[in-house]
Amino acid sequence: MVSLSGQQVLRMRMAAQGLGARGAGDVAAAVTGCAGIQAQDLLSSRLAVRARMRHMTEAQVARACDQERSVVRTWLMRGTLHMVAAADVRWLVRLLGPTIAARFQRRRAQLGLDPALCERLLQKLPGVLAGRSLSRREVVADLAQAGVRFDPAGQAAAHAMVFAAAAGVICRGPDREVEGEPTYVLLKEWLARVKERRPLEPEVELARRYFAGFGPAAVEDFAAWSGFGLPAARAACSPLGLVTVDCDGRRLLLAGVGEEGAGWRLLPKFDTYLVGYRDRTLLRDAATSQAVYAGGWIHPAVVHDGRLVGSWRLRRQYGASAVTIRVQLSFGVPGDEEALEAEASDVGRFLGIETRLELRRG
């Protein structure tokens, strides 16, 4: 069995995620290469694409979502909103949707969304959304007129939308231009011109993509990321012929010969690299853990050669001509100011704003 150091593993993971030598393809290729991008925060999902691609702009990512429809946002792994290639949406929903629906069944019941109401919801949504995109508030109002009523002010509306997405009826549509409000569309209509991928063994294909995008990693990491139980995760990995490597006594799996990535990256909050592993021991130390994984939130992170070394944030000051990117490095981390300046400038280029780096240590 091949032995790898922790640093080798981190650099391989960085390369697998597309965070080393950034690609020059399209948005769909970027999100497929890293096995999907978390998308519960709109700007963060776009910045996650930037971290993995050269020469991309925020406007291009928005166009891929809202106009070209080459990528789609819906609830997938762990019941979390993700951005994935449009060609992959249907088979992923068929694979993961039943688990998502079952996961939130108790909460739906607490909110008054009983099975009979949920069935009526799925029956009425095609008529409500036919040929248009509506905000959640608008969907709830039109459903009420159609005889499907639930509390519009609480969590019931959100859970109703997730349930309908898990059933393959709806997905997220274009965000409203003025207020940035998310909308919902019929999945069948939105993807009418998209050729669907149909892997013969969907669970095996999901495992293949995970280890291609996150390896070296453990089966337990894949189970946590996908939402599979451990037996199902092991069964999905079994046909892949993954290479087993040792890292300080821990058995990790690798898809083929892993390349190594290096360099500095400013990752947004909830970046898939930050949430893709159950065991994050290699990824972080106590200082960065406190800065990035705090209060049930995953904050923007500074990554160097695959390891978390600090946090960062955009700081807008009233009347200033530039936006400050404040980088806070952990104590003892030798910051390459020139490389960080280039990375901060690329964030500004992507967003179409002027940026200024403010570097702090300790």
Distance between the termini: 39 Å
Number of helices: 16
* Strand segment tally: 15
Mean pLDDT: 92
Name the overall outline.
globular
How much strand content do the residues show? Answer: 15-25%
What does this structure look like?
The chain is 43% helix and 18% strand. The chain is built from 16 helices and 15 strands. β3 and β4 (81-85) form a beta hairpin. The chain is globular and about 60 Å long.
Descriptive terms for the model:
alpha+beta, 362 residues
Write the layout of secondary structure elements.
Elements: E1 2-3, H1 6-16, H2 27-33, E2 37-38, H3 42-50, H4 58-68, E3 71-75, E4 81-85, H5 89-103, H6 105-110, H7 115-129, H8 136-145, H9 156-166, E5 170-172, E6 184-186, H10 187-190, H11 202-214, H12 219-226, H13 230-237, E7 243-247, E8 250-254, E9 264-267, H14 272-275, H15 286-292, E10 293-294, E11 297-298, E12 301-304, E13 307-315, E14 323-329, H16 337-351, E15 355-361
Parallel strand pairs: 1-7, 14-15
Antiparallel strand pairs: 2-4, 3-4, 5-6, 7-8, 9-12, 10-11, 12-13, 13-14
In summary, what is this structure?
The chain has helices at 6-16, 27-33, 42-50, 58-68, 89-103, 105-110, 115-129, 136-145, 156-166, 187-190, 202-214, 219-226, 230-237, 272-275, 286-292, 337-351, and strands at residues 2-3, 37-38, 71-75, 81-85, 170-172, 184-186, 243-247, 250-254, 264-267, 293-294, 297-298, 301-304, 307-315, 323-329, 355-361.
